[in-house]
Design goal:
The complex is a heterodimer of chains A (499) and B (488). By secondary structure, chain A is α/β, with parallel strands linked by helices. Chain A is 39% helix and 12% strand. Chain A contains 17 helices and 11 strands. The longest helix of chain A has 24 residues. The N and C termini of chain A lie close together (9 Å). By secondary structure, chain B is an alpha+beta fold. In chain B, strands 1, 2, 5, 6, 9, 10, 11, 12, 13 and 14 form a 10-stranded mixed β-sheet that branches. In chain B, strands 4-3-15 form a 3-stranded antiparallel β-sheet, with no helix packed on it. Chain B has a two-stranded antiparallel ribbon with strand order 7-8. The chains are: A alpha/beta (499), B alpha+beta (488).
Chain lengths: 499, 488
């Protein structure tokens, strides 16, 4: 076999079942790819090699013994480093604050991956505490875009997106609070899904903004994302906001995908000033594919779209200021050396442990929740959030899904926006609405710019319509087959991982 | 001195620890006095990534208490985060209820010498307790024990309707009585199950002009006595301060003071010139609670008889005095015990007397308590047997006291003790007639006095007969025979 890692997760599973390969080989290939390329990409903050190898071998033995295996049996999986793991790897959130923090428990999704016989190979880089759009806010250095190492991978789940794009792991988990799965998926040319709020348990996801955070999968193909979603979706008694509602068969939905009669809403506001012309062209071409395949296009309007980013940054920072209050050096995490008293211990530990973007958001959030400002900012933002949700509800009464760009531009150079937080925040302009409205949204590749950079099409749907979104995403994937295109840095690397 | 009136105004915030097996937002056991940090999990430790899940039992108990306090139970209640940094609060926010408490607008009826009074309840809400800081004896550090972290507390806030120390005491005791009657709290004061925070100031009218003194909140009082003494001290202190400074209340401000148990004085902890900014906001990790009206109705119907209702019933149904009924309803255990004795002996009034007098005296001298059934030896069944023996004339009241004392010290029943010691009353007429004859012969003086019209001489004769019989003569029968013989 030429390069095992060119297989999608679904293909790997088929190959494993046909005994054409082994989990041991897949995991070894994955670890070898990480060893050879991650020095340049820096997708991972920590890796499990020995433990992963042993798990893979145990799964191979069980397979040989004819045991029934889980749906991820023997597949390498990467998980974002804000998901708690008790297996010896730290859970750092890419922060100095938690650099040495080892969680004593596994996140619900980690338990589910293990129960599905997936093999966790490492934990991926992110913007500190998932706050950022480029993965440059990692305390441990940025992740580079596998399509062009001088560019950002998007964020905050940049490590997971880059790991999948560089074929270091066929599947990865990220978290999405305002676009943190979809934006890096778009910029790295992979598929990334933010599920409906409540579809996946947040238990064990280190909180950034509790009412917006949602864990979701990355894969090179829509089918792979469907496979992973099937594993992690479901109710969890430890997360009061998770929803007790059976998950449909996502893979079946993807297999039976058809554009015939699909009503696609095109929000006027998504194709306005600020959208890069090349991105717009590729997105419009993608939409034309749907029309040609029998879909009906409907122009819709989301009148409160203009307030989405502002609303998002009030709600998200308010919740973040509260969620991050616990990092004070008292019970765990970074503690300053030789404090003279309690107050100094707390304030210096926080000053030293958090990076500038996290501090900026804590201050913003503290401000909007403070007495005298609460009504003007936080309360008003909650009201606008309802209006934004109302816009989307009205749209979904008319159409099956909304389509538009995931990101206003393709990947940008490292450092280009780090000095301008507002410009960085605007990268999330098309993604934050889904989080505010709690609806699912997927980013699927829809072509490449002249510079060879991937562009993502975002498809948004009403709550709990992940099956329909994935089916819709599968149509452009089938048409374009972008998932087969390899980042240039992989040229010649295939040999290195042959086994 | 000018013409003035002084009125004290007190409102109370009371934290009641609920009797749940586990904590408010995780499955850890609630505990007291165990090895520090032995009842903790990622959730109550506030580790990264954890989420709270509401303990339904804590909510149910809270609703019961709210209903018993005549509160309106909110059809829609939610949780809020209250932020402050303290090492015993691992998340640096407390999950509480801010603007939509589970219960509001109720009242608690109290009883003092001055009569009954309704004290309005502003609100009742649930929140989680913090841990404990233990200051190391040696070294400049503190230790944190998080066993208590997350223990469910019901905070009950009264309106400022309390005007005297007596009312404050009655309110606190009455509240304790109610929560124990309901079984929503053990209300063990030694274990800190009830913590009181009175807000106190004075309204002083001088020469027709009304002034209010600055409001003082006394923090963390955990005994009835501390509340009484603290409030009484503040009443005196604020009046003295007024005379000295004429300092008046400023809107929205209050001073927090502590209470020193050994000096009986209060002391300044912190001046709240500005209200603390707790940055309350709705807890996004918990869902809103919307109890079904039928469920609330069911709880309402299932509420047990409350102390004052029970007291009223004891007076009307059993013909007890207000005082005795009060003593017998002081605790639910006492009330249950009494009713059982009354029922088994079919003699409620004598049963009440036995419980409030003989029994209470005996157990007090031995340091026993009716509330701790485990080490209380006289079951209602055993006492009822004794009450019956006295009522049926098998033994006298006086002998009954002796029997009771033996019952407490041993395991024998009243009947066994009576039989073993030959304590049964002599009601045999022939034997008693002989005793009477002997007494009449031995006491000619009183006999003459009686016959001369001094009826009180009968008592002396009775006394002589009872003494001669070793207390075993049936006084009713004796007095019949005696009168008959004297009139012969």
């Amino acid at each position: 076999m030429a390069d095992l890692l060119e297989l999608t997760a679904t293909e790997m599973t088929a190959a494993l079942e046909r005994r054409e390969t082994t989990s041991r080989d897949l995991v070894a290939a994955s670890l070898a790819r990480m060893a050879s390329l991650d020095g340049q990409v820096h997708a991972f903050l920590s890796t499990r090699s020995e433990a992963a190898r042993k798990e893979a071998e145990a799964i191979d033995r069980r397979r040989l013994a004819g045991e029934k295996l889980g749906p991820l049996a023997g597949l390498p999986v990467a998980i974002k480093d804000n998901l708690c793991t008790s297996d010896g790897l730290p859970t750092t959130c890419a922060s100095r604050m938690l650099e040495k923090f080892h969680a004593p428990y596994d996140a619900n999704v980690v338990e589910k991956i293990r129960a599905a016989d997936g093999v966790i190979v490492g934990k991926t880089n992110l913007d500190e505490f998932a706050m950022g759009s480029s993965t440059e806010n990692s305390a441990f250095g940025p992740t580079h875009n596998p399509w062009n190492l001088d560019l950002v991978p998007g964020g905050s789940s940049g490590g997971s997106a880059a790991a999948v794009a560089a074929r270091m792991a066929p599947l990865a988990l990220g978290s999405d609070t305002g676009g943190s799965i979809r934006l890096p998926a778009s910029l790295c040319g992979v598929v990334g899904l933010k599920p409906t709020y409540g579809r996946v348990s947040r238990y064990g996801l280190v909180a950034f903004a509790s009412s917006l955070d949602q864990i979701g999968p990355f894969g090179r193909t829509v089918a792979d994302v469907a496979l992973m979603l099937q594993v992690i979706a479901g109710w969890d008694g430890r997360d009061s906001t998770s929803v007790n509602r059976p998950a449909p068969d996502y893979a079946a939905a993807v297999r039976s995908a058809s554009a015939q009669g699909l009503r696609i809403g095109l929000p006027r506001e998504f194709f306005a000033a600020g959208l890069d012309a090349e991105v717009e062209r590729l997105v419009r071409e993608a939409i034309a594919v749907y029309e040609k395949a029998g879909a009906k296009l409907v122009e819709v309007s989301l009148p409160h779209f203009a307030y989405a980013v502002e609303t998002y940054y009030i709600v998200a920072t308010a919740e973040c200021s509260s969620n991050l209050a616990r990092y004070d050096g008292v019970h765990y995490g970074h503690r300053t050396a030789e404090p003279s008293d309690l107050i100094e211990m707390m304030s210096r530990s926080r000053a030293e442990g958090f990076g500038p973007e996290v501090k900026r958001r804590i201050m913003l959030g503290t401000y909007v929740l403070s007495s005298g400002y609460y009504d003007a900012y936080y309360l008003k933002a909650l009201k606008v959030r309802q209006l934004i949700k109302g816009d989307l509800d009205r749209a979904f009464a008319q159409v099956d899904c909304l389509m538009g760009p995931t990101s206003p531009t393709a990947a940008w150079p490292l450092g280009a926006k780090t000095a301008d937080p507002l410009a960085m925040y605007l990268s999330d302009i098309y993604t934050v609405s889904a989080n505010l409205a709690t609806i699912p949204a997927v980013s699927v590749p829809c072509g490449f710019t002249a510079a060879g950079l991937p562009v993502g099409l975002q498809i948004m749907g009403d709550v709990f319509t992940e099956d329909r979104l994935l089916a819709a995403a599968a149509i452009i994937e089938r048409e374009r087959q972008d998932w087969q295109r390899r980042p240039g840095m992989l040229a010649g690397d295939g040999k290195a991982v042959q086994t | 001195m000018t013409d003035r009136t002084v009125k004290m105004i007190v409102g109370l915030e009371v934290h009641v620890q609920l009797k749940t097996r586990t904590k408010l937002f995780c499955g850890c056991q609630t505990s007291f006095g165990d090895e520090p940090n032995s009842h903790c999990c990622p959730v109550c430790l506030g580790l990264p990534g954890v989420l709270p899940v509401m303990n339904r039992e804590a909510y149910r108990l809270s609703v019961m208490a709210a209903l018993a306090l005549h509160c309106t139970v909110a059809p829609h209640t939610k949780w809020d985060r209250k932020h402050y940094y303290y090492p015993d609060l691992p998340k640096n926010y407390q999950i509480s209820q801010y603007d939509l408490p589970l219960g509001s607008d109720g009242y608690l009826e109290i009883e003092t010498e001055a009569g009954r009074k309704k004290i309005r309840i502003l609100r009742a809400h649930l929140e989680e307790d913090a841990g404990k800081l233990l200051h190391a004896e040696h070294g400049d550090y503190s230790e944190v024990d998080l066993n208590r972290t997350g223990t469910p507390l019901l905070e009950i806030v009264s309106q400022p309707d309390l005007a005297t120390v007596e009312e404050v005491r009655a309110y606190c005791m009455s509240l304790r009585q109610i929560v124990t009657y309901l079984g929503v709290s053990e209300a063990n004061m030694q274990m800190g199950h009830m913590r009181f925070e009175p807000n106190i100031n004075l309204h002083i009218t001088e020469n027709g002009e009304k002034h209010a003194t600055p409001i003082v909140e006394l923090k963390n009082l955990n005994s009835f006595r501390a509340v009484e003494r603290g409030v009484a001290y503040e009443e005196r202190r604020q009046l003295a301060e007024w005379d000295e400074t004429h300092s008046r209340m400023k809107a929205g401000t209050k001073t927090t003071r502590g209470f020193n148990d050994s000096t009986g004085e209060t002391f300044v902890q912190r001046e709240k010139e500005e209200a603390n900014d707790y940055r309350y906001f709705p807890e996004p990790d918990l869902v809103v609670v919307e109890p079904k009206p039928e469920w609330i109705d069911e709880l309402q119907r299932g509420l047990p008889e409350l102390p004052l209702e029970k007291k009223n019933r004891f007076v009307t149904a059993y013909g007890l005095s207000e005082y005795d009924a009060g003593v017998l309803t002081a605790t639910i255990e006492m009330a249950r015990y009494f009713e059982r004795v009354a029922e088994l002996s079919a003699a409620p009034k004598p049963a009440a007397n036995w419980v409030t007098q003989g029994l209470t005296r005996e157990i007090n001298t031995r340091g026993l308590s009716i509330e701790s059934a485990a080490d209380f030896p006289v079951t209602a069944e055993r006492l009822a047997e004794l009450v019956k023996a006295v009522e049926q004339g098998t033994i006298s009241k006086t002998i009954g006291d002796t029997v009771l004392s033996e019952m407490i010290d041993g395991k024998n029943s009243a009947a066994e003790i009576i039989a073993a010691k030959g304590l049964a009353q002599v009601s045999d007429t022939a034997a008693l007639e002989r005793m009477v004859d002997e007494a009449l012969a031995a006491n000619p003086g009183p006999v003459a006095d009686y016959r001369a019209g001094k009826k009180q001489a009968l008592g002396r004769l009775m006394g002589a007969i009872m003494k001669a019989s070793g207390g075993k003569a049936n006084p009713k029968v004796v007095s019949g025979i005696l009168e008959q013989k004297l009139h012969q």
